[in-house]
Design goal:
Distance between the termini: 55 Å
CATH architecture of the largest domain: Alpha-Beta Complex
Order of helices and strands: EHEEHEEEEEEHHEEEHH
Helix content: 25-40%
Number of strands: 12
Shape: globular
Number of domains: 2
CATH class of the largest domain: Alpha Beta
Structural class: alpha+beta
Radius of gyration: 17 Å
Length: 214
């Protein structure tokens, strides 16, 4: 059994070299944690188990798959997948999607996605319940350098979505998705707001109606 004596505080960035970071990743006591590595620092987040986080995660996942299906947009989604550029950076977003020409870029049988061999996902999403400040800060820089096209932050507490288009290692706020053409972020926000009042079956029916009439 691998164990490590490296000390860390969850949900904070610590300075650490790559080899020590990998030791943490391989430690069984952290097998349910999410790992990030950027600019010679690591962040470890224990897997969220709360109702609010998981429900927003669920409805956003459904909405994206439904929209892609109705609009005939090629899409494959990953849940808590790891993207790694060895020795440089790693990210494990809550949700990530390969879209369009990239849809079949990652073959089955792939574990950690090696960014020296495969492209990054087109869209990454963080569901932020307790991690909002970091999702808007250091992780935003991480995803800019990762080379994704779009980055969304779902603010669970405020029931909002902050969406960024990423280009040339910079990011800009958008109100309509570029990788899922003509998808208004406001519709997803309304779906989240509706989910506070009714069950997901009703929210799903509402989303279906919105997407079919657009």
């Amino acid at each position: 059994m691998i164990t490590t004596n490296i000390k860390f505080t969850p949900d904070t960035w610590i300075e650490i070299n790559w080899s020590d970071y990998l030791e943490l990743c391989n430690d069984p006591q952290y097998q349910k944690a999410k790992f990030y590595y950027y600019s010679q620092k690591a962040r470890i987040e224990m897997t969220p188990i709360g109702n609010d986080h998981s429900r927003d995660h669920s409805i956003i996942t459904y909405a994206i798959h439904l929209y892609a299906a109705l609009k005939s947009i090629p899409l494959n989604g990953n849940d808590c997948c790891s993207y790694r550029k060895v020795g440089v950076r790693e990210a494990q977003p809550d949700l990530s999607f390969y879209i369009g020409d990239n849809v079949d870029a990652i073959p089955y049988g792939t574990s950690i996605i090696d960014l020296d061999s495969y492209p990054p996902p087109n869209l990454v999403i963080e569901i932020a319940n307790t991690s909002l400040n970091d999702d808007k800060g250091e992780k935003r820089l991480l995803y800019e350098d990762l080379g994704v096209e779009e980055y969304w932050i779902v603010d669970v507490k405020s029931v909002q979505i902050i969406a960024f288009r990423v280009e040339q290692k910079g990011s800009w706020r958008v109100t309509q998705s570029q990788v899922l053409p003509e998808l208004d972020i406001s519709v997803l926000i309304q779906a989240l707001q509706l989910s506070r009042e009714t069950n997901h079956s009703q929210v799903s029916a509402w989303l279906l109606q919105q997407f079919q009439t657009k």
